[in-house]
Amino acid sequence: MEKLLFLNMLLPLFLLQFYPVLILSEPYEFPEKYFINCGSDSAVTQGSRKFVGDKNPSSFSVGKSNSVTDSSQSAADTSSLYQTARFYTKPFSYNLDINETGQHVLPISLCYPISM
After folding, report:
1. Number of Cβ atoms within 10 Å of the Cβ of 62
2. What tens digit of pLDDT does each residue of 4-52 get?
3. Who contacts 113 (Cβ-Cβ below 8 Å, separation ≥6)?
4. I need a labelling partner for 101 at 20 to 30 A (CA). Which of 12, 19, 30, 74 fits?
5. 3 state DSSP class of 46
6. With contact defined as beta carbons under 8 Å apart, do 48 and 39 qualify?
């Protein structure tokens, strides 16, 4: 019983030390600069985000690759954002101009295989 009482006091004190970190932390906001429409030469807007085509990008560079387009009948029901892709057969990279220091999140969406 004495150990249980000790744990009931210790656990809240342990958790309390993380409270200032939670209060002072700001939520992460995605930068507006890099939303990429892979394999496309046109931009697509989804919600408030503009996905820029990566065939002729101005603010980043793309490694050697091929672009593919899903022209199947089922693609008509899919957002144009998911109808193109970039096809790599070797290691690849995107070089992004990042002006701010700190940590950055790069969300990557991998899609289902498309017919070519």
Report:
1. 19
2. 666 677 777 777 777 776 666 676 666 666 788 888 888 888 888 888 8
3. none
4. 19
5. strand
6. no
Q: Give how far Cα 97 sits from Cα of 19, 31, 42, Å.
A: 35, 12, 20
Which residue matches tokens 């930068």? 31
Q: Token digits for 94?
A: 């995107």
Confirm if 89 and 72 have CB atoms less than 8 A apart.
no
Distance CA 60, CA 92 (A): 14
Look up residue 1 and give its amino acid.
M
| DSSP state for residue 78 in the 8-state scheme | S
Which residue's structure tokens are 């200032």?
20
Q: In sequence order, which ranges of the chain are alpha helices (DSSP H)?
A: 2-16, 19-24
